[in-house]
Each structure stands twice: as C-alpha cells, then as structure tokens.
Amino acid sequence: MKYMLLICDDETRSPSTEEMAADPVHQAWEADLERRGAEVFGARLRPTSTATTVRFRDGETLVSDGPFAETKDFVGGVVVVDCADLDEAIAIAAGHPYARWGSVEIRAVWE
Amino acid sequence: MTADVQAVRAAVDAAYREEWGQVVATLIGLTRDWDLAEDCAQEAFAAALTAWPRGGIPRRPGAWLTTTARHRATDRLRRDTAGRAKLRQLAVLAREPDESPAEDIPDERLRLIFTCCHPALPFEARVALTLRTLAGLSTAEIARAFLTAEATMAQRIVRAKRKIAEAGIPYRVPPAELLPERLAAVLAVLYLIFNEGYDERDGRRALAAEAIHLARVLARLLPGEPEPRGLLALMLLHEARRATRVDDGVLVPLERQDRSRWDRALVDEGVAVLDEALATRRTGPYQVQAAIAACHATAPDAAGTDWPQIAALYAELGRLAPSPVVELNRAVAVAMADGIPAGLALVDELAASGRLDGYHLLPATRADLLRRDGRTAEARAAYEEAVRLAPSDADRRYLTARLNAL
Questions:
Q1: Which pLDDT tens digit goes with each residue over B99-122?
Q2: Which domain, by its residues, includes B384?
Q3: For chain B, which terminal residue's Cβ has fewer other Cβ atoms within 10 angstroms, N or C?
C-alpha cells in the first residue's frame, strides 16, 4: 500500500524552506520517516497563488489562474513532471483524461 | 553638442511614451528579473535628463536608453555574488554596446505582452502588469484608474511578477498552436483598458490612449494576424466619436450625436486599418465589431445607416462570439432594418430566456422600440424598470430624460 500525504494549511504562516528545514519538529518528522524507510516521494508545493488549473472541453484547453478550491474536486492522484516551463506543463496536463471531466491543478515544486 | 533643457525634457517625455516598454522588455529578456529591469529602465530615463543636455539628444533615443539601462543592470549584478554568477550566464549583458548594434535588437515587447497576459495570471493582474511594464504607468496611476488603493494594486503587481517567476511562465511569443488562444487573451486585456478609458472620469482618459498605442504596437509586430488590426480599428472608430458621446453628463444616443464633430481623421484611419485586416479573409470578433462601428461612423446621417448590413454583422458576431448582449444589439438592428415588431419579437424572446435578467439595457432597448412603435404606456413601464437597474449616474440621467420625453 502506498499513501500520499497532502500537507494542508491555510497558508497564513508560509514558512520558507529554510525555516522548515530548521524547525526541530520537522527535523524529527523527517528522521522518523527515514527510520521507517517510508518516504517514496515528497515535494513541497509553492503557495496556491502560483497555481494554474487546466480543463479540456469541446476541443479547447481552458487555462485559469488559481487552485480549484471553489469546486468540490478532491485530489485523485498526483504526477510529478519535469519540463521546460508552465506552457509545457499545461500541454501535459491538458492531455490527461481527468482534464476532460475534472481538472488538473498545476503547482510548482520548491527546488 | 548641447541641447536646451526644454527640448531635452520633451525628448525624454516622448521617449518615455514610445520606448519605455521596449527598454523594459529588452532588460527582462536579458536578465529575467522584472524588478531589476524596471529599476534600471527608470534610472536610464533619469540619466537621460542629465546626459542629453550636455551631449545632445541621441539620434536613436531608444537605443541610448536600452544601452544605458543594460549597463546599470550589469553594474548592479556585479555588486553581489549571486548577481555575478547570473552575469556569467548572461554573457550577452557584458558585451560592449558597439558589438550589438541597436538595429539588431529585436522588438521584445511582443514577448513581454504575451507574458503579461498569460492566462495563468488573474485577469486584473494582467491588466495592471501590462499598464505597468509596457505602458510605463506608475502603480499610483493604475490604482487611481481602477479605483483601487495603491497598496492593493502594488501587491497585485508584485504577486503577478512572483507567479511569473515561480510558476515558470515562459517569456516568449507563444508557438503557432497556442497563438490564437493567447492572442485572444492579449486583445481582451487591451480592449478592457480601452473601455475603462472610454469613461470620462479623471485619471481614466489616458487609458484609452494607452490602449490605442499598445494596439498599434501589437498590430505592427504581428502583421500576419488580422485581429489586432480589427481591435485597433474598433478603438479608433469609437475614439472618433468621443467628443459627442456625452453632453453635460448625459449620454447622447448615436442617432442624436453631432456627426460634424466626429473626428474624420480617426474614422478614415479606422476604416483603412479595418480594410487591411479584412483583406486577409480571416474574420474574427474584433473585425466584425469594427465593421459595425464603421457602418455607423461612415453613414451620412442617422437615417442613412445601413441597418440590414449591421443586422447581418451582428448575426455573424453572434456566430463567432455567442452572447446575449450581441443578440440584443442584433434585435435593435433588425428592428431598424425590418420594422419594430420583428425587433421586439427578438427582444421578448431574450427577455423570456432570462439570460439578461438585471441588465438595464434589456428594458431600455425594449422601451426604446415600444416608444418608436407608439406604445407609450408600455414604453413608460420599461423605462422605469431600466432606470431602476441603471449602473451609473450617466445611464440613469439618460434614461430619466427619455422617460420624461415620452
């Protein structure tokens, strides 16, 4: 079994990656994961203000700013892609079957 | 060679209007740093004020300003370690100006405008960013024009720039397969800026001129695309009627506007630009709207308006860009071309559909057609409803005047 943990908050604190790395609670959590050998893949997303949502309807790619929060969508899976820029990510997202009835939210990963 | 201070001031002002966007666009192209680009462009214009009186106004002010801004950027980047690393990547920055003649600098504004109007940015941020980086309006000016607090507008612009960097929005002209969709987004931003400037309130008048300027640049930089010309023609044809649209704060309907005061030079230019666009035989919503505006602008008088042609153009527009507002306009044209009952039937159909509920021009249009048909009591009720729904004082005053004239 694999689980994806979606780490959520309301973005009011927004600690930097350096602050996160320096946080003893976070360090302990990471040490615990390592001890268990549990981490398959992890990524921290930049804030929802950098999100882009893609839908594909009637042969057209519809791009909108922001996350899908206003809808009742739930995350049904995640894929991490490595590509040139947002336009390429949009092209990839638009081709995913879920873009035809749901939506694909693109979030840049902290690097 | 020296130049007097007044001449320099005028030359710098002119260069600011013409070259600001190009200087910023070039610097962003070189550094990918939007704030650095704007700061250095600002410094280059300030430097011109002291250098030009001594050395004379350069033959190509844009090239002088771009070179100066580039040197400032190089200096700043040299000052810190991260900047020096970046500088090595951007070797082009360190080149001496005579190695890269200004004639070879491509017009970067196209990349800039497509990036500012990227659909991943919130719409109001696209508008603000376009006015800031391409037109060189200050944040305070933009805030004033959109009746927003300056701090709010500044934050909107900062967030948009951050998203461009962090979400990886590319700085480029979109490839052919994306161009139609992305171009539509750019045109929508320019048209919104123009319409905001169509309002006569303080601080907004300049927006119409900026929108026309940007549309000219876009049309010149995308000669193969007809829609930027369509939009430019539409703006010019609207602008030609500006002086007669409002009288003493009251909107004047087209048929009562003093046609002798329409700006003939703008009408002629609008029609000529539209003809160039139509010659490509690739129609689009802006060309059709411009064609409608041209029908009005070139009619000898209100009675001589080619209403059957306008009705056909609205039908075409409805096919290209379906909207209940377009259908309402078509209903008016049909009423004028085929008789009031035919137009009223279309208006009633629209009203029954509920798609324009709450829109003041629906009862206002109905009222006007009923009045022309002599159905005064029904017209009165419709005008009263329109007054209740009117969004602005000018609209309310106009509708009240029509009501009182029954």
A1: 444 444 567 899 999 999 999 999
A2: 358-406
A3: N
